[in-house]
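[Discussion] Sanity-checking designs against the backbone

I'm trying to build intuition for which residues belong where. Below is a structure token string of 315 positions. I'd appreciate it if someone posts a full sequence so I can compare it with mine line by line.
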């Protein structure tokens, strides 16, 4: 969409020279695909994120927050409105707390936070060592691996919440308990109400251990990841695992492991990973998504649900 002159003037007054136009998004996504954003601006702190998002809501300007760019598929047509590139990355450990904890802004790389915890001899985030996304993305999607997940680590989440009442629009900046996040498998109230709740930062529970013990477990998980997941440009796990089964197993059993469309491929190593082998388009990847869903539904009667999010304009 093209912004109204008053909206654009307001954005330029807020964002100044950070506001860029017609920015290709492929460079900002782990799959290396995606068309242009009408407007893009970098955010450097949780306070800035709260300020900018509040103004987007007040101005009725559509926006998307992009962190590490994993777990998203951006359309070839790109994104209308504004993309806020979340580079709010501050991290602070509290070793005096009992148990110890870490606070991180939502744009911090989650794997890096886990590695910083390990360097301090703190356990609890070993499962996140190889996760490429941000703390905010993990909060929204209840990221997990190796028996751990965000629901098991989060103490508090600082959020910005947009509510429309009969009388007015209200924006709350609050600290939510893990119960209020309403976590389910790879989902949360934030994911179920897109555009209404934004993650600013989080406090996560840790445990005292030793650097060697934590590092050993992390290396074990990383070796497993390298052995079972394809390298290169992908979005991470494409589909949620259905109850009692695995999406990758079903796709492989449907005969689609290794299937390729242009430079897009259902990985020959793990069928729940779709890989960009060069110049794949979002349309090619989406075509493979639909092919997998249809084949698994026909063969097994199972409806595969996306774990990734579709971003931008999709017909």
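Best answer:
Here's mine. Compare freely.
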């Amino acid at each position: 969409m093209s912004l109204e002159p008053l909206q654009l003037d307001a954005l330029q007054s807020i964002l100044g020279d950070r506001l860029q136009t017609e920015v290709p998004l492929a460079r900002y996504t782990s799959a290396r695909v995606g068309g242009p954003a009408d407007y893009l601006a970098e955010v450097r702190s949780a306070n800035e994120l709260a300020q900018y998002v509040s103004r987007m809501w007040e101005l009725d300007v559509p926006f998307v927050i992009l962190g590490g760019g994993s777990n998203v598929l951006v359309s070839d047509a790109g994104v209308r409105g504004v993309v806020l590139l979340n580079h709010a990355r501050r991290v602070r450990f509290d070793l005096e707390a009992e148990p110890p904890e870490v606070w991180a802004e939502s744009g911090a790389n989650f794997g890096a936070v886990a590695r910083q915890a390990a360097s301090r001899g703190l356990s609890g985030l070993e499962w996140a060592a190889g996760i490429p996304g941000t703390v905010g993305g993990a909060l929204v999607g209840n990221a997990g691996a190796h028996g751990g997940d965000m629901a098991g680590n989060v103490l508090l989440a600082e959020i910005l919440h947009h509510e429309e009442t009969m009388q007015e629009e209200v924006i709350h900046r609050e600290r939510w308990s893990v119960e209020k996040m309403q976590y389910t498998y790879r989902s949360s109230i934030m994911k179920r109400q897109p555009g209404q709740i934004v993650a600013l930062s989080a406090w996560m529970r840790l445990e005292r251990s030793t650097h060697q013990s934590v590092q050993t477990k992390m290396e074990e998980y990383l070796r497993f990841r390298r052995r079972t997941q394809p390298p290169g440009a992908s979005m991470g796990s494409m589909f949620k695992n259905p109850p009692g089964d695995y999406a990758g197993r079903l796709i492989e059993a449907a005969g689609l492991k290794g299937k390729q469309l242009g430079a897009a491929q259902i990985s020959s190593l793990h069928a729940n990973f779709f890989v960009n082998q060069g110049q794949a388009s979002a349309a090619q990847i989406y075509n493979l998504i639909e092919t997998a869903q249809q084949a698994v539904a026909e063969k097994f009667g199972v409806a595969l649900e996306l774990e990734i999010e579709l971003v931008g304009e999709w017909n």
